[in-house]
Amino acid sequence: MDEILEILEKDARITPDEIAKMTGKRPEAVRKAIKHYEKEGIILKYKTLINKELVKDESPVRALIEVNVIPQKDVGFDKVAERIYSFSEVISCYLISGTYDLLVMVEGKDLHTVARFVAEKLAPLEYVRGTVTHFLLKKYKEDGVVLKLKREEKRITISY
Fold first, then answer.
1. 0.90 exceeded by the pTM?
2. Percent of the chain with pLDDT over 70
3. What is the pLDDT of residue 147?
4. Packing angle, helices 3-10 and 27-39, rounded to 10
5. Domain residue spans of the chain
6. Measured between alpha carbons, how far is 83 from 10 in angstroms, rounded to an integer?
7. In angstroms, rounded to a whole number, what is the distance separating the alpha carbons of residues 57 and 149?
């Protein structure tokens, strides 16, 4: 992978001038390369990773759902995956090897919202044979970044 892409993947806030210093390229050449990557769809989005456990608001509930599907003639898993990832609750969707065919990450405001999505939208789909839902309980590392957790209050030991 191009070194400009590697740098941006680690820190999307870094400026073209800083990248130029790191790579020995001219700033204008870096800007031109970035524009090219954006135009070609190589760079799709710039993202901020937020440790939601440290935000005062309620954190949404996320779940990983293993989905077993029946592949469709001539299109395989693609049409079923497209139908699934079109739901607004779906954050990510991957074709995987193993017992299940698709791994889907969904997000909802609470456990019941995610459960309703699985029961009312995902499981009833025509080519879905079965699902297994795993709720995320705690994040330790995301996108290569170790998340610093809130300090939990230590309980005072009382003895008699």
1. no
2. 93
3. 83
4. 80
5. 3-39, 53-137
6. 31
7. 15
What residue type is 133 in one-letter code? Answer: T
Q: Calculate mean pLDDT across residues 109-137.
A: 96
* Residues 139 and 106: beta-carbon distance below 8 Å: no
Instruction: Judge whether residue 152 has pLDDT over 70.
Output: no
Tokens 């937020």, residue located:
50
Contact 105, 91 (CB under 8 A): yes
**Could you tell me the two tokens for 62?**
């996320």
Average pLDDT of the segment spanning 109-138: 95
For helices 16-23 and 27-39, give the axis angle rounded to 10 degrees. Answer: 110
For the domain spanning 53-137, the CATH number is 3.30.70.920
User: What gap in Å lies between CA 75 and CA 72, rounded to an integer?
Assistant: 6
Mean pLDDT for 13-38 is 95
d(CA 135, CA 56): 21
What is the number of other CB atoms lying within 10 angstroms of the CB of residue 127? 17
Within the chain, how many helices (H) and strands (E) appear? Answer: 5, 6
Q: What angle do CA 130, 61, 8 make, to 5 degrees?
A: 100
Q: Who's near 27: CB < 8 A, 6+ residues apart? A: 16, 17, 20
